[in-house]
Structures are given as structure tokens and as C-alpha cells.
């Protein structure tokens, strides 16, 4: 009987609701299942969880699931499928994977043993090479891998430690034991998503999470952080997380972990070599990087000695490693352990190096670089999966994807056998993996789906520590043999159940002697650059939206249909054209122009394009933005995309622009009220002030020329949001000199040029100096000069030429800020910065 969640009503008993929930749950034939044991009966810990879950009632369960999904969406938790242009919302499975304490203890011991073995293998491969000399590991099985880096041979990392974090992908085998499916020693991903899954699900079901005695994840991350700190040469080290950048598939996770652990998120362009050490380029000069947790592949880490095409790494990094000038987690070249060929030697190497059998066996693997194994694989090809020894593609199939021998056509099979005979070192035969299943919530009931569990181990001052949980990926296909974060895949929290209540532990320090700090840490030049441009883009978008709203409002107002009003409307329309807000539109067709200026995406000046630019700049500094700010930027972007039409009425255009302006005002309010007053905030606000000052000058030149009619002056007050203040200050109508004074020279008007200049002077005065010689740096010298010119200007004598000089001074100031504080050079990657306003 199929029962939907709607029928699991509150009036049913708990037992009836549970029966309805699992009525159709049938494990796949011959496949182990987490819920149903080998004896065909539900496991006790799962029944305990489901009893508590169904006690909540269908309505409450639905609300909590919806709250979890909303929290993920609102927090911007996302990932990217390789090759996709846009991010996707993180797909959280609502039901956790449950593992009892005794079973977890065996898993943890197996993972801990495996990482100790991996460390010894790496040390030998890049050191003395005894395994090669003794014949325990064929040299071709290592040197044939593109992940083996010869320049690192003989380079001993600080403390002699190659691995600092390791992960094993595991699944339950047909005999019910856990088996290792793959090793992750290069730059294991997913730990941050495991943490997100935990925070979201424990928040949605706090009582259930507590009552199930779920082991906490915070101690693992705390120990990992201590481990990296202990490897540094200084007592207060600077730890950096090296990311490939915001277009990487797991960039959200990297930014999230950097914030959670208190690490500095950097890209390759943020780092540079000096005197055998790695330094971060910051707005206060070069600052030493003591420890780097890399999330880029080894080959891309140094374009001088490794991959010359890489724009992700740090030129000279290998030299810094030779000199012992930086700790790298994990050591370059550790990816050689991830190749399928290494699995064929793991049982033997474990006996050789540890004198033990593998606690967690891996998939049975045979390397075709050996004659006997090659012949055996060819004979049994129909019963095996064939994979590339070093991640290389097999036949027409993508890299790292094994092919099932029995699924090949006779022609394909013949081609594959010929390739194996010709160059056997490139192939391995493996036992076909049928993943075990775990319950997922689907259409109001539980159903089994295949999964892979990634378990992490971190080096700590007290030895290796295994995360009590992990990163679980669940396929939506019942016959999946491997799971990656692609279409139809969910991720589940992993609850390791303790035998007794678990002590609450967080990353918050409890030592009363912890040193208090009131100044934020290092601000990399790249982050400063994007904070500055985020402010500029938001202000540009606001200026464009104000022009659109004013234009639509003038067309709505029937009382404004005078000769001068028509001239003013034409001026507003021509301003949008000159700003490239509506390519191809004509100022003589204001309605078509307005729609394009709002929602067009063909040029850089439209409101939508500017908001997209702001979102792109924000994506580079995601770890520095609050979830609320990120959500608001996404909201205004989504609203402008959804509301786009070929033609809008005047009222629709006004409403769309007005709504977008309110959201941008919310972003500005968050920055003013919630953003720490450090260098990052000052540069973000400086970007806004520069752009607002430039816009105010342009508005004044267009609408406050010497012959400007009253309608133009009235529009100018609208554009700078100063109508109420002007009307309360001057009881008579608008006049040229008073309007000019309020828009350009009045230091008490937060929309005036003078006000922006005062704030810019304040920001530049408080930003770090490169030297303490008492001389003004170029940006400060420019702003002091401009402030004096504006302070001594007289409104009655002010003309467009002088206002243009103010505008050009602000443009020159923006360039000077960029030259002083931001990364320079042709190969520096940053958010696009089109000229925007003409």
C-alpha cells in the first residue's frame, strides 16, 4: 500500500504513523541497507529515530523540512556542477544517515590506520624510495601518474608531515562490512558541507538531535585548527585557505570553512614569494603566510616549476617549500595516492609498513601493468569494471569513470582488450561496486537509495582524529554505482549515535586568558578591491534605478505634461542612453527605453547588469558578507530578472524600480549597522561614496545648468533624494543657487558631493599606511585638495566646468585608490569592472 504524507494524520497512533511511513520500504535485492538489517528486520536505532520523528505529526514534519530548505536557500548555501555557469542550491536530504557508536568505532579505526599508511607511503615515494627498491611498489605505478611531481622529490615538509587532512569514500559491501571505494589525499572537499548539513538539520529538529545523542562535529574542526597552528614556526601564525576562486564547484564550502575556522581566504594572486617565504598582499603591505591549506590541485600550485599554464598558484611556491618557509596542507604531490592503481597495492603495503591487515578493505583491484594480473583482468572482463590507472579516460567515457565490462558492445570490448594488451599500465580491473542504500524521504514516505560516505581524518597535536560523521552523497537512481554531486544527488547529515548524552562543544574559546582583539585581521588586496567595487556597483545600480523611477514617475504625472516637463523627460531618457543602460533604444521612445534600462542584459549600464556585476564582486568576498547581505543582493538580482518584459507600463516601471531601490537601501543599511568598522568596511563605503559623488556631479551638470527650468531642478532634487529637506529649508520654490548648494556643496546633506568627500577623507585617513614618514599618500593628497576646493566654492558662482572638475577629481581618486590598495598586473583575476557610467 502506498501512503502519502497527507494520510499520516495526527489522529493516528504513533505506531500507525510509523507503519504508514515505511509501508513500501523494500531494500534492493542483494544490496545491504542501513534501515533494514541482514535479518530482514528494521535496525533498532532507526526505529528509535523514526518513532521520535513520527511523534511530531505530519504537519510539523512538513514545516520543519520546509524550514530547513528555506534556511539553506536564505543562507545562500550552494554548489556548482563542473562546467555550469550558475550555482545551484544545496540539495539537503531531510533524513540523516544513522550509524551506531560500535560500528562507527570500527570505521574510525580503519580510517585512522589508512591515513597512517598513506603518510608512510608518501614519505617513501618522495624520500628514500625503499618500496621501489624492494619491489613492493612498482615504480611505474607511481611515476606514470600525472600527480607524481618529480620537482618535489627529496623535499621534506616542515616537521616531516605530508598529510594534514585525509578522507576516505566508503560504502557497505555485500558482506555487510564497510569498504573503501576511494582515497582523497590531494585536497579533500565536502567537510564544510558536512558542517552545513549538521547545522541546518540540528536546527530543524533540535530535540530529536539531542535525544539521539548525536556526536558533535565542532571538536574535530577545533582539533584540525590546533593541528595546523602547531605546525607553524610562530606562536600566532597566519593560516590561509587557498581557493581556486568563486567559479570553483565548492567555493561556497571554502568560504564557509574560512569564516568558521578563522582562516584567511586567499587566491593565488593574493600570495607572493619574498626571501624564501610566502606573503599575503594586503592593503597594509606584505604579511607572512605561515600555513596554507590548499584547495587547488598540486599541479597548479606553482607555474614556475609545475604547470606553466596555471593562474591559480603562487610562482616560487616550490622554492618556499624547499626552504621550509611555509607549511602546506596537504603536501604537493599527495594526489598520487588517489589513483586507482594504488588500491591494488594497499593490502600488501599495509602488511609491509604497519605489520597489519587493512581494517577497512578497499575494492579488489588488479593493475594491468603486471602480466599475470593483466591476463586475469582480460579473462574476467565481463565480471569487472575497467578504470584508468591514473584517472585517465577509458574508451569514449569521461575521466575517472570506470566502465562495466559486461555493458560494452563486442566491438568496444575488443578495442578495450587491445588497448590493455598494448599499454596495460594505463588500466586497472576492479570489482564491480554496488552501493548500499539508506532511507530518503520521497513523496511522503521512506525509500532506499544508494549512497557514498566520505569520512575525514585530521592531524592534531595529539595524533590523528576522525570526524564523528561525514559527507554523505545519495543518488536518486536506484542502480547508481558511483555518486558525485551532479543531477539528482542529495547530501545527508551523518549522525553517529553515542551511548550516552553528548557534551555541547563549539569552536568558541573558553580560556579566560584568550587575547582580546578589536582590530580585524589582514585584508588581502583582492578582497579590498572587490569590496570597493561592490560599493561602486551598488551605487551605480541605485543611480540608474533613480533615473528610471523618476522618468516613469514623470510620465505618470498628468499634471507635469508641460513643455518644460516634456523637455525634462527627454533629458532623463537621454541620460539613460548615454549611460548605456538601454542599447539600441531611442530617447524618443521612453517606455521601451525604461524596460530595457531596468531588465536588459545586453550592455553594462542597465540596472540588471549592474546588479549582476555587484553580485559577481560579492561572490569573490563571500566569506566577508553576512548571509542577510548576500541574500538581499540575490533578491534584487532575481527580482530584476523575473520582472523583465519587452514592454512595461509607466506604473510597472515605477514599481519595479522602487522595489529594487528599497532592497538596495536594505543592503546599505546592513552595511552601516552590521558591518565591522574595519578597513574592509571603509573601502566598501569608499566605493559607494566615490560613485555617489560622481553621480551627484553628473546629475547637477545635466539638470542644474545656468538656464535650467524649475522642472529640471525639481528632478535633480528627486534624483539625490533631497526633496523633503529642501522644502523644509526653503519655503519658496526651487532656485538654481540653493539647489546647487544642497546637491554639491552642503556637507550636511548625505547625498551631496561635499558629504561624500568628507567621508572619503575620513576613510583614507584611517586606512593603513605603507610608511610612517609623515608624507600623505597619493589618495589622501587628492582628497584633501578636493575637500579644500569644495569647501571654498560659492554656490552662486558655481558652474558646470567647476562641477566637471570635481567629477574628474573623484574619478582620479578612484584610480589612485586602486593603484595604492589593490593588486595590479595583467594576470590578476578580479571581478569585471566596466566603465559603467559615461
From TrEMBL:
Name of protein: Circularly permuted type 2 ATP-grasp protein
Entry-linked Pfam families: Alpha-E, CP_ATPgrasp_2
In this protein, which residues make up the domain named Circularly permuted ATP-grasp type?
Answer: 96-474
Q: Which Gene3D superfamilies match?
A: 3.40.50.11290
Q: Which residues form the DUF403 domain?
A: 523-822
Task: Note the InterPro entries from the entry.
Answer: ATP-dep_Glu-Cys_Ligase-2, CP_ATPgrasp_2, DUF403
Annotated organism of origin = Methylocapsa polymorpha
- Transmembrane domains' residue ranges: none
